[in-house]
């Protein structure tokens, strides 16, 4: 029970509450006109102060404008009279005064104020334990009743909080409504929690189904046997690549040796081409040399004798001179051809020896290249291997997801059926609790509106949503609103 709402600033008018039904309204005087509404006089702010002192996030307050403000409540909590103070500047802790004996949590001394203090989360836990019987230390796990959500049904903020009887804010999640309302009505809220966990599993399976569909290799058609065959092939490819990498030897001068082997090959080709030309020329010289012969000295005299012409001594002398010159030319020509032929033969022999030497050197270099590799080549092979390993892992994951999808679908059906059976048993066993809640709701509705209302607490096999998850508790109200 709250007895007083106050602040440390003079501009705030404290509010004292009495036992029973209290109504806070804006005052209107005889001088008030239609323009003088009840809006903006502090009713909503008063409610925000209550929530702030009861552990809300305090976002309704401007921290800069209200930095010096401290709000407080005098309240009776589990039979103890307490005062709680919480400042806008330091909202992470609350100050406490009053009967603090035998608390489930131990306050610490605040050196600046001399009062005992609690972390705001500890304060919320204490409120939950004292007001609703929640564990002082929240249980681990999702979708459990919380003090902040439960108290929001009793201290509603904003218009949306009154739009639906079982929602304290617009678009409140289904699990939050079911868990907390089930708790407040004394029903098994853990069934509502289990229902939401099944919804989560259903959503996870839906996402997994999309992942499997999106990860299928083109052309496989989603067949498990095809994926198994693909995995076997990829694993063998990865094994072969790993062996090749393990036996790969990197030579530091690989690129230099490769370039040298290429240069030697080019040199060999040049020498072979040069020898071909030299052999062509040598054959020509040898042919010319065989055809070069000295002239017949008596052929001219026989020619003149047959003509009946006698040669004089002067003519004969000139003829001898010509013949001597001709013999000299032929001799010089033969000597030149013989010299050039010998020179070409020598060049051809040297080139052949050079080719043999280069060929032997290249063989050594090629042997090194065959047994070693370049770092660039090793890196490329490693990248290809990593790509193959990645494909292996992706295929394994895809197969695992397909197995999880099949297994998860079966397990989800079983869990839904078990929850449905357990929920029906609990629904029947808690008939008296449901009857009490329905009677109270009808009585209050009749008292307030002179018309009966209906509180329907039902149990259905699905929620009406696409996921078809079992719905443990469906709460609706009709009639008076």
TL;DR?
The protein has 481 residues and is an alpha+beta fold. Among the domains are: 1-138, Rossmann fold; 254-296 and 323-369.
* Spatial gap, N to C terminus: 27 Å
Q: Could you name the CATH topology of the domain at 1-138? A: Rossmann fold
Please name the CATH architecture of the domain at 1-138.
Answer: 3-Layer(aba) Sandwich
The CATH superfamily of the domain at 1-138 turns out to be P-loop containing nucleotide triphosphate hydrolases
Biggest sheet: strand arrangement: 2-1-3-4-5-7-6
Report on this model:
This protein is α+β, with helices and mostly antiparallel strands and 481 residues long. Among the domains are: 1-138, P-loop containing nucleotide triphosphate hydrolases (Rossmann fold), CATH 3.40.50; 254-296 and 323-369. The protein contains eleven helices and nine strands. The protein has helices spanning 43-53, 120-132, 147-154, 174-184, 189-215, 224-246, 254-291, 299-306, 313-371, 375-429, 431-449; strands at residues 2-7, 15-16, 70-77, 80-87, 93-98, 108-109, 116-119, 453-460, 471-479. The strands form two sheets. The protein has a seven-stranded antiparallel sheet with strand order 2-1-3-4-5-7-6, covered by helices on one side. Strand 1 (2-7) and strand 2 (15-16) form a beta hairpin. It is rod-shaped and about 175 Å long. Residues 462-481 have low confidence and may be disordered.
For this entry, give a set of tags.
single chain; 481 residues; alpha+beta; Rossmann fold; seven-stranded antiparallel beta sheet; two-stranded antiparallel ribbon; 57% helix; rod-shaped; disordered C terminus
């Amino acid at each position: 029970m709250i007895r007083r709402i106050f602040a440390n600033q003079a501009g705030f008018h404290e509010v004292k509450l009495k036992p029973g039904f209290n109504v806070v309204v804006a005052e209107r005087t005889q001088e008030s006109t239609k323009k003088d509404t009840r809006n903006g006089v502090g009713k909503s702010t008063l409610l925000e102060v209550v929530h702030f002192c009861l552990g809300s996030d305090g976002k309704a307050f401007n921290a800069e404008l209200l930095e010096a403000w401290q709000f407080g409540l005098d309240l009776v909590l589990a039979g103890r009279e307490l005062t709680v103070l919480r400042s806008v500047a330091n909202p992470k802790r609350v100050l406490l005064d009053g009967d603090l004996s035998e608390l489930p949590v131990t306050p610490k001394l605040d050196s600046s104020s001399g009062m005992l203090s609690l972390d705001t989360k500890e304060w919320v836990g204490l409120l939950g334990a004292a007001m609703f019987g929640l564990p002082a230390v929240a249980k681990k796990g999702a979708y459990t009743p919380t003090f902040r959500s439960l108290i929001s049904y009793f201290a509603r903020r904003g218009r949306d909080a009154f739009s639906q009887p079982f929602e304290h804010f617009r678009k409140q999640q289904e699990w939050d409504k079911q868990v907390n309302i089930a708790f407040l009505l004394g029903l098994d809220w853990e069934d509502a929690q289990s229902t939401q966990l099944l919804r989560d599993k259903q959503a996870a399976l839906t996402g997994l189904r999309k992942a499997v569909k999106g990860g299928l290799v083109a052309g496989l058609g989603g067949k498990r046997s095809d994926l198994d065959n693909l995995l076997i092939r990829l694993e063998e490819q990865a094994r072969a690549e790993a062996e090749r990498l393990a036996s790969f030897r990197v030579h530091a001068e690989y690129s230099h040796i490769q370039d040298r082997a290429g240069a030697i090959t080019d040199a060999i080709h040049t020498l072979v081409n040069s020898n071909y030309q030299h052999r062509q020329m040598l054959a020509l010289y040898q042919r010319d040399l065989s055809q070069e012969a000295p002239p017949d000295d008596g052929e001219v005299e026989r020619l003149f004798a047959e003509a009946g012409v006698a040669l004089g001594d002067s003519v004969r002398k000139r003829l001898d001179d010509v013949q001597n010159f001709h013999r000299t030319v032929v001799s010089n020509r033969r000597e030149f051809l013989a010299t050039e032929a010998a020179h070409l033969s020598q060049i051809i022999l040297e080139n052949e020896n050079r080719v043999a030497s280069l060929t032997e050197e290249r063989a050594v270099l090629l042997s090194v290249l065959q047994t070693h590799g370049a770092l660039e080549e090793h890196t490329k092979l490693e990248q290809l291997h990593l790509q193959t390993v990645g494909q292996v892992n992706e295929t394994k994951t895809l197969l695992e997801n397909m197995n999880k999808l099949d297994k998860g679908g079966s397990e989800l059906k079983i869990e839904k059926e078990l929850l449905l059976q357990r929920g029906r048993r609990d629904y029947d066993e808690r008939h008296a609790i449901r009857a009490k809640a329905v009677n109270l709701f009808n009585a209050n509705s009749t008292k307030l509106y002179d018309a009966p209302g209906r509180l329907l607490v039902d149990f259905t096999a699905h929620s009406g949503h696409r996921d078809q998850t079992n719905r443990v508790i469906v709460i609706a109200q009709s009639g008076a609103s």
